[in-house]
Specification:
Structural class: mainly alpha
CATH topology of the largest domain: Four Helix Bundle (Hemerythrin (Met), subunit A)
Radius of gyration: 19 Å
Distance between the termini: 52 Å
Strand content: under 5%
Number of domains: 2
Strand order of the largest sheet: 1-3-2
CATH superfamily of the largest domain: GntR ligand-binding domain-like
Largest sheet: 3 strands, antiparallel
Helix content: 55-70%
Order of helices and strands: HHEHHEEHHHHHHH
CATH architecture of the largest domain: Up-down Bundle
């Protein structure tokens, strides 16, 4: 694991959170998977105290479940719940965009320009990880510009929840076009925010939320349930049941 995060002045607890959050978002820790504290310490190469701090925060975010005497469990993907949460996220994201347009400093705007350029330069690929890293930085910058701690506490877990869902969708149903379209919508939104074009920025935000809404139908209809929760035993092809 790189020490790059340490260079940005993060505490070990913050580093532990970032590392575990990334493992969840990219499904290296699978939905429904259980593990011990020692397992997590080994995965993130950090000690007990920072990992405990991260677990408390991730539990508050509803991304991990603490199980007394049995370690922790990655919260399974509940598509019905996450569809409801998307309705909440849509409204809050629009509010953040409006605040960011009003409040963004010259430094934040400079970073948004840089992010938009990096997004444009992403090479065509079915791998969503490079995009996810830039998407996460964009979310952080817009929340920084909005300058409202309540919004950050509310949206942080929603961002991880939907990055995980997007990763799952791309892994099973996506292609280069779905990644390209997602990238382009983010670029359009960034350009509008940089130009203080509130109407276009809000329209782009709604298009992004619509894009996420469209993921649910194939995930609900066509995905093997064990991908949503490893505790569910996969059905064997051709299995039959008798009463």
């Amino acid at each position: 694991m790189s020490n790059k995060t340490a260079a940005y002045g993060m505490s070990q607890g913050e580093q532990a959170y970032e590392r575990i959050e990334s493992l969840i978002a990219h499904m290296e820790l699978k939905p429904g998977e259980s593990m011990t504290m020692a397992d997590l310490q080994e995965r993130v190469a950090l000690g007990r105290t920072p990992v405990l701090e991260a677990i408390r925060k991730l539990s508050d975010d509803t991304l991990l479940e603490v199980r007394a005497g049995r370690g922790v469990r990655v919260t399974p993907i509940d598509l019905h719940r996450e569809r409801r949460l998307l309705r909440i996220r849509r409204d809050i994201e629009c509010f953040v965009v409006e605040l960011a347009i009003d409040n963004a400093s010259g430094l934040v705007r400079n970073q948004l320009h840089h992010l938009a350029r990096m997004l444009r330069e992403l090479k065509a690929s079915t791998d969503i990880r490079p995009f996810n890293e830039l998407d996460k930085r964009m979310d952080q910058l817009l929340l920084e510009a909005a300058d409202e701690p309540f919004l950050e506490r509310t949206l942080r877990p929603l961002h991880t929840t939907f990055r995980r869902l997007g990763y799952l969708y791309q892994s099973h149903f996506g292609n280069e076009r779905t990644v390209h379209d997602n990238v382009q919508m983010h670029v359009d939104m960034l350009d509008a925010i940089i130009e203080h074009d509130t109407a276009t920025a809000l329209r782009s935000t709604h298009l992004l939320m619509d894009f996420m809404e469209e993921m649910f139908a194939p995930l609900e209809r066509d995905l093997e349930p064990s991908y949503l929760d490893v505790g569910i035993k996969p059905l064997e092809e051709g299995a039959c049941f008798s009463s």
